[in-house]
Amino acid sequence: MAEEDNPWQKFLDRPNTDRGKTLGVAFLVAVACGVAVSTTAVSLRPRIETNIANQRQELMAAMLATLPGIGEILTEAGADAVETMVINLDTGLVEPAMDPASFDATAVAASPETSTPLGRAEDLAGIGRRENYAQVYVLRKDGELKLVVLPVYGNGYQSTIRAYLALEPDLNTVAALTVFEQGETPGLGGRISEEAWQAQWAGKQIADESGEIAIEVVRGTGTGPFQVDGVSGASVTGNAVTDMIHFWMGPRGFAPFLDNLREGKV
Amino acid sequence: MAVSYRILTDPLVDKNPVTVNILGICSALAVTTSMSTALTMCVALTAVLAASAACISLIRHHIPTSIRIIVQITIIASLVIVADQVLQAFAFEMSQRLSVFVSLIATNCIVLGRTEAFALHNPVGPSVLDGLGNGLGYSAVLLIVAAIRELFGSGSLFGFGILPLVADGGWYQPMRLMLLAPSAFIILGLLVWAVRAARPEQAEAPEFESRKQERAVET
Known about the structure:
heterodimer; A: alpha+beta; 6-stranded antiparallel beta sheet; two-stranded antiparallel sheet; 36% helix; elongated; B: mainly alpha; 62% helix; 2% strand
C-alpha cells in the first residue's frame, strides 16, 4: 500500500500516547490556530480601523457640541467653523506643505523621517519617538479664538491612551478631555473612558501662576484647580494621564504652538 | 433522524446548560440588561460552540489525551478571537457595548464542557448539532432574562419603547434593580424553579434532610 509510505499517514497512525505525535499535534494545532487568527486580524483590520476613526470623529463632534458656548457657534456656522491645521511641533507654526485632508498621523509617527527620538528624561509620555507634525483643530468666531483641540497620547498601564484635550481661549484652562482610545483594565483604568471621569477636567488649570505645569491626577479626591480625582485601583493609569498632559503641554509638545497662538502668529 | 433531532432539542429544556447544569452564569448576568446585547452574545456563543465542536470532532482521533484540554482551549480561544474581530469589523458599536464579554466566551464552561463531553467522542455531524442545541438552549435562557430585565428596567424591547416612561410623560416608573446584576440572579433562580416545577425529574435529591422531617421521624 502506497499510503503506508506516506510520512503524513505514518504520523497519523502513531499511537496517541507517542511523545512525537503529542508534540506534533500540539505544534500543528498551534500553527493552524495562529494562521486562522492572523488571517482574520489582517483581513479585517482596515474595516476595524475605519470604525475606530468614525467613532473618534463622533466623539470629537459630541465633545464640541456639549461644550458651553461652542455648540451654539457650531450650529450657527456649521462644522466649517472648525479649522483643521497641520503644525510643525518644533517651530509651532502651520506647515503649509502638508494637507490636513490627507494627513495620516499614524504614518507620520511611524516613519523615522518625520519623527524625532526622545531622550529618556524628556519622554514623559513614554512614547519613545515623537512625530514632527500634528493635526490640531482651532475654532474661531469673528476672528476671535474660541477653542483649541489638541490630540495627545501616552503610554498607560497596558495600552496607549489617546485623547483630545480642548483648551479655552486663555490656552491654560481645560475645556474638555475626551479619551477616544485606550485598552486599560476594564472597570479600573478603563474607567477613564467614562463621561463622569472626563467631566471633572472641565475648568481645570494646566499651569500655575509661575508658568509651571501643575495639573495632575491625584489619588482619592482632588482639591483646587490643578487636581483631578484619580480612579481607585488605577494609580498607574492616572499617573500616565498626568505625564501625558505634562509632556504634550511642555516644550517638546504643543508649547511652541500655543506660544505662537497667544502672540497671534498662527 | 430522530436521534439528531433529540441531540438538537434536548439541550433546549431537558438538558439546558444554564438551568440544569448552571453553566455560563457570568455572561448571563453581564449581557442581559438589553435584548440587543443578549442576542449578539447568543449568536457569537452559538457560532463559537458549533465551530469548535466541528473542529475538535474532526481531529478527535488524533488528540493525545495528555494534552487534550490545551488543544481544545487553543482552538476555542482562536475561534473566540475570530468572532470578536468579526464583531468589531461589522458591528463596532455592539462590540464596544459587549466590551470584554465576547473575549470571555473562551472561558465559558459551556463551550469546553460540550467539546470535552460530546465532540471529543462523536462524529462531526452530531457534534455540530449538539453545539447548536446547547448554544440555542443558552440563548433561550439569555433572551428570556434579557426580555424581563429590559422590559421592566427600561420599559423597552430591542430599544423600542413598549411601556411609556414617567420621564417621557408616561406612567411607567422603571425598576432600577432590573438593570443591576442581582436581578439577573433572581430571574434565573425563578426560571430554574419554574422549569423544575414543570419537569420534576430535573430536581436534584436534597443533600440534607430538613429539620422538620427529622422531627417528624423522631416523634
